[in-house]
Every structure is written in C-alpha cells, then in structure tokens.
Specification:
- This protein is α/β, with parallel strands linked by helices.
- It is about 35% helix and about 20% strand.
- It has a single domain, classed as Aldolase class I (TIM Barrel), CATH 3.20.20.
- Strands 3-16-15-10-9-8-7-4 form an 8-stranded parallel β-sheet. Strands 5-6-14-11 form a 4-stranded antiparallel β-sheet. Strands 1-2 form a two-stranded antiparallel sheet.
- About 50% of the residues are buried.
- Bound molecules: ligand ERO.
- This is dihydroorotate oxidase (fumarate).
C-alpha cells in the first residue's frame, strides 16, 4: 500500500496535496466544497481586517499554460473566516489553515491574536501578494519581513508558516532563510505568483486584465521551474528543520513528485484547481501514488529532498 500522507508542523494530513490560498476559497460554500473534495486540508483565502471587494474585473484570466491575476485580495474579513473555521470544524474532519495578509503590521498582530482561539490547525502568513494597489510586495523587503516575523511570533499560539514570493537571486534565498531561522516558523510555502507580469491580446491590442494597466501575478505552468528552484533552495537552506510546501504549476502527479523530490513536504494546487475543478486533488494524488508504485517508493520520506545533481 502506497502511503502519501504527510505531517505539517505536526498536523497529520491524509494525503499531501491541498488547495493554494486564493482560488475558490473565499466563501463558506467554496470552503465546504473543498472540505468535501480530496484536498487534504482546507486553506482559506488570505484575509484582511476589513472585508474587501478587491480590484475591478476582469482580474483573473486563464492563459495557455497558466493564469494571470490581480484579484486585489477580495475577502470577507478575518471575522468571517473565524466563524467559518468553527462551522467547518464541526462538520468536517479536515485540517484547517487560515491565511493572514494584513495591510499593516498592526493588522497582522490583531489577526494572529484573533486566530489563537479558533479551531484552525495552522496559519499561513502571506506577505507576498503582488496585487494590493499602492502596497509593495512585503516579501521583498527583508528588514520589514524580519520585523513582521518578530511581531507575529510574539503573539501567535498557532503553528505558523510563511508564504513567500519567488526569489531569483541566490543571495536573496540566503538572506530570507537566515531571517526565517530566527523565528518559530514551522514551514515556508514556495511560491506565490510571479508579480507584475503582462499578458496581451494581439488581436484587440489590449491587456487581458483591468487592474494596474494589465499587470498581474503569473501562476501555473509558467512558474513551475521557479517554484521548484525555490522549494529546493529553501529545503537546503532550512536544513529540513523548517518544512517546505511547494506550489506553482502542479497539474499532475509527476509535477507533485518533482516538488517532493526537490524537498516539499506537501504540495498546493492553485491554477490547475481554478481551471480543472476539485477533481484535480484526487487525480494528482492518484497519479502520484501510481508513479511512486512504479518507482518502488512506499512513502514520501523514501524520496523527499533526494534530488540528484549531475556532479
Ligand atoms: O490578488 C490577490 O488577491 C492575490 N493574488 C496572488 O497572486 N497572490 C496573492 O497572494 C494575492 C493576495 C493575497
């Protein structure tokens, strides 16, 4: 029997694949659909203090090999997700993950504190959104990241991780890993969308999404190799003491296998869930099990992080 279960910060997941924050996870109905699917956890939409409508539409468009979005953090406000967590915990036996994306350091502290007394199992802190108009991508401001992790570490009682934007420079991986190691961060999720790409329709000679003159986060197949590099680098730099969750361009069981081989302890699916619906979770996990069987692997530990180089 092939075992694809995993643990994140000590929380047992029946499988190793679940939804990425930001796709079909805003309303209670969305979250109940996830709870009923084969997603092995329910990760809620990144929340802010107050509800937000987000950016004007069109704000998320499918592309040939992925997607572009500038949603602008539409969400129902953290109080709604606290309420939903209680409902979901009563009705379903599935690990629950809150995603916090405060618009200021103070907002993050308020929300981290508020989630202490809720049934959520884990918190994914998201300082990497590329689409909040007028706000920088906080994950690229190393000093601010240090301050934020310091302040939220002091108030949270929940195991938490950080969703990181993609990095491209070897020194940036090291700098960020050194900051993360100072705090009780249990996992990093690599990667958020690649910020501020531009998709164009050559027929209409127009951009595809309305916000920010057409600029938006690129996700899906286009970013798989960047995601793998980030998973690998953080897996190596965090010395397997802090877990890595891989996200970016996972459409198949083999994509998930590659993430785990690079060092991921679990895998999230965003764009493929958007494009293919909730059946994607069972499909990817079945394909992963079949591929492991062919390779003679019994569980994830048999190959996690064991990527070979050519030297
Ligand atoms: O625009 C968004 O709501 C959004 N899009 C992304 O690609 N990543 C995010 O982290 C995010 C908001 C938190």
């Amino acid at each position: 029997m092939i075992d694809i279960s995993t643990k994140i910060a000590g929380v047992k997941l029946d499988g190793c694949v679940f939804n990425a924050s930001g796709v079909r996870d805003e309303t209670l109905l969305d979250l109940e659909n996830l709870a009923k699917s084969k997603s092995c956890a329910v990760l809620m939409k990144s929340c802010t203090l107050a509800p937000r409508k987000g950016n004007p539409a069109p704000r998320c468009v499918n592309l040939k090999y992925g997607s572009i979005n500038s949603m602008g953090l539409p969400n129902l406000g953290y109080r709604a997700y606290i309420k939903f967590s209680k409902i979901l915990e009563e009705k379903y036996q599935k690990p629950l993950i809150a995603s916090i994306c405060g618009l200021s350091p103070k907002d993050n502290i308020i929300m981290f504190k508020a989630f202490n007394d809720t049934p959520v199992d884990l918190i994914e802190f998201n300082p990497g959104s590329p689409n909040t108009i007028g706000k920088p991508i906080v994950g690229y401001d190393f000093e601010e990241m240090d301050r934020l992790l310091d302040s939220v570490s002091k108030v949270t009682k929940k195991p938490f991780g950080v969703k990181l934007p993609p990095y491209f420079d070897l020194t940036h991986f090291e700098q960020m890993a050194n900051i993360i190691k100072k705090y009780p961060v249990k996992f990093v999720t690599c990667v958020n969308s690649i910020g501020n790409g531009l998709a164009i329709n050559p027929q209409t000679e127009k951009v595809l999404i309305k916000p920010k003159g057409g600029l938006g986060g690129i996700a899906g197949g286009y970013i798989k190799y960047t995601a793998l590099a980030n998973v690998r680098m953080f897996y190596q730099l965090l010395a397997d003491k802090i877990q890595v969750i891989g996200v970016g361009g996972v459409y198949s069981g083999i994509d998930a296998f590659e993430m785990i081989l690079a060092g991921a302890s679990a895998v999230q699916i965003g764009t493929a869930f958007l494009q293919k619906g909730p059946g994607i979770f069972a499909r990817v996990q079945n394909q992963l099990s079949n591929f492991m069987k062919k390779k003679g692997y019994q569980n994830l530990a048999d190959f996690r992080g064991k990527l070979n180089t050519l030297d």
